[in-house]
Amino acid sequence: MSRVEGTPALPVGRVLLWRHGRTEWNASGRFQGRLDPPLDDVGRRQAVEAAPHLMASAGLGTDTVVVSSDLARAADTAAELGARLGVPVRLDARLQEHGMGAWEGLTRAEVADRHPDQYADWLAGRPVRGRGGEEPDEVAARALAALLELPSAPVAVVVTHGGTSGRLIERLLGLAPQQRRLFGPLGNCAWSELVEQSGSWRLMRHNVSAPRLETPRVEGGAPAAVRMGATPEEGGPGPIGDADAVG
């Protein structure tokens, strides 16, 4: 089978990118980056409820590889799935969240006040200079390197973060830098499924969650404003859910 030029050849044919459950910082709209706040009570419940639904909907079995960021909010989410499947969870620091440098630990309002020029670039989708942390390509490269070293298996569940999952989706699909915001970020304990077909990767499902975790709908069909794991973007003007910030 020929491979589309530039398409990563992974040792697994199907990848489920699963974002961790909610933390208190998610709920308060605080940038997490590579800092390590734990799951809150809601996040732990989300992991308990989402794990069996993920198993059933994706048809997971004991031949599944489960790999996770080593940050506690991801590792604890992954442990719930690993225990139910009866498989070990592999921890890999390369799957940690996008490093946000000076923004880590700050709310959206605090960033806007302390770093107005950086904040304006971020809202516009331009490169953010001077905050430190990581560039998107660096995040994609380290996360992809972790996947390339997985054992051969039919499917891998990759338990990671909003920004890192976004960079992996873009890298596997071969999207250009200007297409970074083509897909919205994952909600807490939501997942995306990618499958390799005919030498390239296809996004089959995106931002799927267990039924009790899905956003309720109001009259007229519009999603209600809920905080499933709020991002710093929720509740204010500007683009909602830039994947760099969800943590």
- The outline comes out as globular
Radius of gyration: 17 Å
Quaternary state of this entry equals single chain
Our count of helices gives 7
Category from helices, strands and their pairing: alpha/beta
Distance between the termini: 37 Å
Number of strands: 6
The mean pLDDT is 86
The percent of residues in helical segments reads: 25-40%
Ranges where pLDDT stays below 50 over 5 or more residues in a row are 215-243
* Strand/helix succession: EHHEHEHHHEHEE
Strands ordered across the widest β-sheet: 3-2-4-1-5-6
**How much strand content do the residues show?**
15-25%
Q: What about the largest sheet?
A: 6 strands, mixed
Q: What can you tell me about this protein's structure?
A:
- This protein is α/β, with parallel strands linked by helices and 247 residues long.
- 32% of the residues lie in helices and 16% in strands.
- It contains seven helices and six strands; from the N terminus they run βααβαβαααβαββ.
- The protein has helices at residues 24-28, 41-58, 72-85, 108-114, 116-124, 136-148, 162-173; strands at residues 12-19, 64-68, 89-91, 153-160, 191-197, 200-208.
- The protein has a six-stranded mixed β-sheet with strand order 3-2-4-1-5-6, sandwiched between helices.
- α2 crosses α3 (72-85), α4 crosses α5 and α6 (136-148) crosses α7 (162-173).
- The longest helix is centred in the first third of the chain and has 18 residues, at 41-58.
- The radius of gyration is 17 Å and the shape is globular.
- It starts with 11 loop residues before the first strand and ends in a 39-residue tail after the last strand.
- The model is unreliable at 215-243 (pLDDT under 50).
